[in-house]
Amino acid sequence: MTPLHRVQEWYRRQCDGEWEHRYGIRIESCDNPGWWVKIDLNGTKLETLPFQSLAENVDPDGFQKGERWLSCKAAEGVWSGAGDETTLERILEVFLSWAENHGS
């Protein structure tokens, strides 16, 4: 199964007639250039689980330090992944690895 199909399945499992009216998944391009993925965790099994932040080629303030970069974290009920234009699939894989390892 592709990462996109797996994210679709994760989203489908969260939809309960209410969750999808307040929360969801956003995938956006950014001008670095790159990608920004935001996944709402509120109301899911993941909302209180710790996520080990990941930062590659990113400074302590979250700004890229080079051409290839990646940053993933969870805070305030939202999982966020951002990276250069080559990392969209990897960002989804980082989220999915965490979510699937916690039975979500």
Secondary structure blueprint with pairings:
Elements: H1 3-14, H2 19-22, E1 25-30, E2 34-40, E3 54-56, E4 70-75, E5 78-84, H3 88-101
Q: Helical segment tally?
A: 3
Strand order of the largest sheet: 1-2-5-4-3
- Helix-residue proportion: 25-40%
Main β-sheet description: 5 strands, antiparallel
Sequence stretches where pLDDT stays below 50 over 5 or more residues: none
* Average pLDDT rating: 95
Query: What general form does the structure show?
Result: globular
What is the beta-strand fraction? 25-35%
Secondary-structure-derived class: alpha+beta
Architecture overview:
- A hairpin with a 3-residue loop joins strand 1 (25-30) and strand 2 (34-40).
- Helix 1 packs across helix 3.
- The two termini are 16 Å apart.
- The longest helix has 14 residues, at 88-101.
- This protein has a 5-stranded antiparallel β-sheet with strand order 1-2-5-4-3, covered by helices on one side.
- The chain has helices at residues 3-14, 19-22, 88-101, and strands at residues 25-30, 34-40, 54-56, 70-75, 78-84.
- It contains 3 helices and 5 strands, in the order ααβββββα.
- The chain has 104 residues and is α+β, with helices and mostly antiparallel strands.
- The mean pLDDT is 95.
- The chain is globular.
